[in-house]
């Protein structure tokens, strides 16, 4: 395991053991609680248009329990591979693919030591909730580029730990906050630039979502109460957003940051 990790394999094994229920991404579901799915899909479509390349395949780094690999197969017709160093995460990712009726390859391994068969093989390298868990973001991005062919696309999503979501996470569960490197959109773009990538867009995603927050004792009475409160709040806020049609991605309240960047040909 690379010494830049702010987390351990054992930590992620525990996460995936305690969170076995993973739903798929459905951007065409107009339900109030599918706000993330629609925002995520719009961001991916926009990023692919900015890139303008022809994508045939994609690898997701940190793919534990991923609902995203079936999404990329169904909505973008890509051949997909997932890589994760957690055995539990890999097993759950395979289970999700099987449940969704989608074919994909799930490999256990460290992104910092890829096999030669994976180097330079992919048109798109995708990650969500991965790059913020390293002490050197640029080095982690550089490592992810080894999987990419020249001219390929990097799609990186991280939680916004410099805004209100980070403030709330720090107070809700400080240990979870501490395994994140707090980055804003400008810092995240700069890290991709230092890794030799051409920035296509670096932006905030969604107006608000409390689902970006994590609490280690979610099965406790307090944890269950917090989950119920979060669901009620998000249903109300997202219903209002749907009715008004207004969305304000911003540095203060947005839950996620996306950076889309091209590897020079």
Task: Considering the chains and any ligands shown, give keywords for the structure.
265 residues, 7-stranded mixed β-sheet, alpha/beta, 18% strand, 7 strands, Rossmann fold
Tell me what the structure shows.
The structure is a single chain. By secondary structure, the protein is α/β, with parallel strands linked by helices. It has a single domain, classed as Rossmann fold. The chain has helices spanning 9-18, 35-51, 68-76, 87-100, 137-145, 164-172, 174-178, 185-194, 221-244; strands at 57-61, 79-84, 105-108, 122-128, 148-159, 198-205, 256-262. Helix 5 (137-145) packs across helix 8 (185-194). The protein is globular.
Strands, helices and their partners?
Layout: H1 9-18, H2 35-51, E1 57-61, H3 68-76, E2 79-84, H4 87-100, E3 105-108, E4 122-128, H5 137-145, E5 148-159, H6 164-172, H7 174-178, H8 185-194, E6 198-205, H9 221-244, E7 256-262
Parallel strand pairs: 1-2, 1-4, 2-3, 4-5
Antiparallel strand pairs: 5-7, 6-7
In brief:
The protein is α/β, with parallel strands linked by helices and 265 residues long. The chain has 9 helices and 7 strands; from the N terminus they run ααβαβαββαβαααβαβ.
């Amino acid at each position: 395991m690379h010494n830049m990790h702010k987390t351990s394999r054992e930590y992620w094994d525990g996460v995936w053991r305690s969170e076995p229920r993973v739903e798929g991404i459905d951007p065409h579901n107009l339900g109030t609680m599918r706000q993330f799915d629609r925002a995520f899909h719009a961001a991916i479509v926009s990023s692919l248009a900015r890139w303008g390349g022809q994508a045939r395949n994609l690898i997701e780094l940190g793919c534990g329990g991923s609902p995203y690999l079936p999404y990329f197969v169904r909505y973008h017709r890509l051949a997909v591979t997932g890589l994760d160093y957690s055995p539990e995460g890999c097993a759950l990712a395979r289970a999700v693919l099987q449940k969704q009726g989608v074919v994909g390859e799930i490999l256990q391994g460290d992104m910092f030591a890829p096999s030669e068969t994976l180097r330079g093989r992919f048109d798109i390298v995708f990650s969500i909730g991965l790059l913020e868990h390293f002490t050197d973001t640029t080095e982690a991005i550089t490592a992810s580029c080894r999987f990419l062919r020249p001219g390929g696309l990097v799609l990186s999503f991280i939680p916004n730990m410099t805004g209100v979501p980070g403030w709330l996470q720090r107070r809700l569960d400080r240990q979870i906050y501490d395994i994140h490197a707090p980055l804003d959109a400008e810092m995240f773009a700069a890290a991709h630039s230092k890794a030799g990538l051409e920035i296509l867009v670096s932006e905030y995603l969604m107006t608000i979502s409390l689902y970006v927050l994590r609490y280690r004792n979610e099965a406790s009475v307090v944890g269950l109460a917090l989950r119920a409160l979060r669901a009620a709040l998000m249903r109300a806020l997202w219903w209002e957003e749907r009715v008004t049609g207004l969305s304000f991605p911003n540095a203060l309240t947005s839950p996620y940051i996306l950076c889309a960047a091209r590897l020079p040909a």
